């Protein structure tokens, strides 16, 4: 039997593959399972067009068999198999995808789920194996073939026996080295986790013989308090859940289903406050399940926190945390997106063109926004809970990027209202403004209690105008960026000109100003450079004196800026 060489380009490509294309070695299993699933899909499509064939769902599955003694891991499928020629073409020429060709030939078929397209996934096996054997028998053929390769220097193909149609991929797992561990790929528990992580939603069962232990029956004469003995037993289990929740019909799902999914996925330890199930069918097709958590994750307002959604392509996990899918101001959102429309590159970990991804991200942003808006209207308590946890992030969102996102966010932020004694939105404030009121008034301070005692609020409150209390250090910066809401500008109660119509008090103050000019000058001198001016006030009622500001910055902002490191 002569050994055939991989084509020259293929040889170099194979070395590259093994050493650098994939970031995680464990994905070899995802690739082999995806191929197995594709092979079963192909049989399925054949049965749709060939009346002599029938498809019994229970006959189709993938089986994973680790064997620590022989140090092999076998991935078997009952799929379409390969002829000698197909073996040669599909596994002898790297970057040639039989699955892509199949998809093209069968384009008329609806509901394509075939994953393969690059013709390199198979070789990921060499990241963990120093020898790979493929035993395969094609549908409609009595002869089976064995393909064998020890990596870059070539492969052999010879006839062999196999009773049933399908393919076994046998990996001889590498020995551990000082730097690299391979034993884990023979470990049931670890394999199960890898399957769960990447291939949970493959549509066919992925089975494995799992060894567990259970308490043995107590012997008749055993002492009452004797510890039970444990016996080991092995049973075949299906590891994957097969049908992803996001492909199910919304009407079939309960809140509990979504909560369970949230917990299973470990998106958070709390219960989600709200879920969003999106099945988009427009310019870009995708499914998504998104969650708004109730509580702030402990690391949320730190640099360690990483935003992102899980990204699936056709049910196969591509990325754990795709940050590009969420704007920073919605970084609290958890969940996943599945789309067939993504152009993946050969490593699948990198997206080739991000046009579709951008479309999805934009779409998702709008959905989250309108979800939050409808919560303000219909589920006020929930929204306030949410706002306690993440309102600060929204306000940062208004301020960041030079206010680029303020239009998206200004209807989502709330401040405490002097009138309502609770959080209100800007829209609510403006809707209550008397006709003659020119500005949206606000007062900044450390707490509601302290703001209430500010002499500066007196005149505005006296007029019967509502005041927004800004107690968070980001608040005033956000307000400045918004600058006006529905054409009403914001005005701090401590600014020099409040824009309130003058009344009798004004004249009195004017007279006072003239009469006491000498006293004021003397006071200013005593205070040195600490104040710019001392004047008779038009706004005080029960307090003798207050501080006001004239420039762009309010007193509170000046305080914050002074605290910042230069
Ligand atoms: P891709 O899946 O992107 O096409 P792979 O390198 O993973 O590339 O596989 C190359 C080709 O080998 C597949 O397109 C398919 O034709 C064939 N193949 C791989 N594994 C199997 C299998 N288990 N059963 C049948 N054909 C397979
Ligand atoms: Mg593949």
UniProtKB/TrEMBL annotation:
Subcellular location: Cytoplasm
Record InterPro entries: HATPase_C_sf, Heat_shock_protein_90_CS, HSP90_C, Hsp90_fam, Hsp90_N, Ribosomal_Su5_D2-typ_SF
A: annotated segments: 1-348
Chain spans, region Disordered: 495-514
Keywords: ATP-binding, Chaperone, Cytoplasm, Nucleotide-binding, Stress response
Main location class: cytoplasm
NCBIfam families, per database record: PRK05218.1
Name listed for the protein in its UniProt record: Chaperone protein HtpG
Originating species: Paenibacillus hunanensis
Species lineage: Bacteria, Bacillati, Bacillota, Bacilli, Bacillales
């Amino acid at each position: 039997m002569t050994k055939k060489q991989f084509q020259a380009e293929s040889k170099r490509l194979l070395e590259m593959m093994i050493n650098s294309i994939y970031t995680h070695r464990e994905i070899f299993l995802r690739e082999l399972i995806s191929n197995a699933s594709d092979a079963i899909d192909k049989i399925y499509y054949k049965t749709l067009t060939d009346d002599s064939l029938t498809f019994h769902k229970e006959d189709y599955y993938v089986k994973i068999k680790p064997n620590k003694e022989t140090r092999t891991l076998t991935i078997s499928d009952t799929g379409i198999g390969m002829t000698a020629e197909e073996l040669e073409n599909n596994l002898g020429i790297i970057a040639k995808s039989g699955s892509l060709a199949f998809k093209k030939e069968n384009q008329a078929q609806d509901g394509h789920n075939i994953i393969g397209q690059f013709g390199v996934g198979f070789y990921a096996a060499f990241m963990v194996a120093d020898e790979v054997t493929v035993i395969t028998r094609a549908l409609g053929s009595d002869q089976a073939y064995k393909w064998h390769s020890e990596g870059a220097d070539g492969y052999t193909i010879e006839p062999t026996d196999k009773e049933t149609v399908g393919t076994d991929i046998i990996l001889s797992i590498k020995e551990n080295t000082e730097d690299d561990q391979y034993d884990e790929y023979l470990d049931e528990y670890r394999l199960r986790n890898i399957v769960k992580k990447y291939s949970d939603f493959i549509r066919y069962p992925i089975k494995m013989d799992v060894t567990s232990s259970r308490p043995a029956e107590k012997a008749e004469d055993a002492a009452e308090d004797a510890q039970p003995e444990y016996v080991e037993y092995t049973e075949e289990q299906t590891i994957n859940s097969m049908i992803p929740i996001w492909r199910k019909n919304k009407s079939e799902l309960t809140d509990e289903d979504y909560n369970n999914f949230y917990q299973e996925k470990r998106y958070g330890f709390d219960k989600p406050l709200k879920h969003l199930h999106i099945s988009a069918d427009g310019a870009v097709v995708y499914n998504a399940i998104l969650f708004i958590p109730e509580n702030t994750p402990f690391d949320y307002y730190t640099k360690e926190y990483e935003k992102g959604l899980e990204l699936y392509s056709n049910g196969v996990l591509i990325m754990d945390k795709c940050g590009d899918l969420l704007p920073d101001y919605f970084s609290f959102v958890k969940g996943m997106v599945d789309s067939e429309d993504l152009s993946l590159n050969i490593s699948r970990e990198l997206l080739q063109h991000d046009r579709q991804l951008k479309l999805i991200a934009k779409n998702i942003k709008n959905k989250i926004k309108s979800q939050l808006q409808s919560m303000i209207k219909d589920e006020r308590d929930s929204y306030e809970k949410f706002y306690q946890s993440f309102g600060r992030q929204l306000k940062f969102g208004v301020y960041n990027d030079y206010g680029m996102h303020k239009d998206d966010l200004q209807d989502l932020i709330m401040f405490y209202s002097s009138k309502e004694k609770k959080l209100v939105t800007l829209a609510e404030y403006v809707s209550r403004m008397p006709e003659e009121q020119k500005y949206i008034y606000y007062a900044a301070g450390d707490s509601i209690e302290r703001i209430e005692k500010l002499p500066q609020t007196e005149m505005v409150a006296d007029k019967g105008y509502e005041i927004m209390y800004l107690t968070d250090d980001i608040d005033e910066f956000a307000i400045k960026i918004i600058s006006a809401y529905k054409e009403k500008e914001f005005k701090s109660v401590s600014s020099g000109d409040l824009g309130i119509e003058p009344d009798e008090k004004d004249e009195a103050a004017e007279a006072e100003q003239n009469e006491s000019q000498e006293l004021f000058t003397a006071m200013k001198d005593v205070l040195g450079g600490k104040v710019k001016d001392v004047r008779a006030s038009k706004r005080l009622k029960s307090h003798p004196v207050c501080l006001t500001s004239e420039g762009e910055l309010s007193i509170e902002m000046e305080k914050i800026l002074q605290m910042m490191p230069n």
